Amino acid sequence: VQTCALPIFLLSTVLNEREREIIYLRYGLLNGEEVTQREIGEMLHISRSYVSRIEKRALLKLREGFEHGYD
Asked: CA distances (Å), 70 to each of 11, 15, 21, 39, 43, in order?
């Protein structure tokens, strides 16, 4: 249980709302269905390239969170 709760905790504390939404959709964390960057862009009314930039920034923030002890 603790190993599953930790990534969700990191998502909710490290990422802002838009980053979190994109990561949830992109990797199917809500319903198990992954969504493409293009589809996310259409859903949020932003470009696919902007979705890509937000996704990369979010993944970097998560990686840094893991490396620095979940602060």
From this structure: 10, 12, 20, 31, 30
Distance CA 49, CA 40 (A): 11
Reported pTM? 0.81
CB atoms within 10 A of CB 22: 25
Per-residue confidence band for 38, with pLDDT thresholds at 50, 70 and 90: very high
Identify the pLDDT of residue 3: 44
| Residue 33: its H or E element | none
Whether residue 69 contacts residue 14, with contact meaning beta carbons closer than 8 Å, is answered with: no
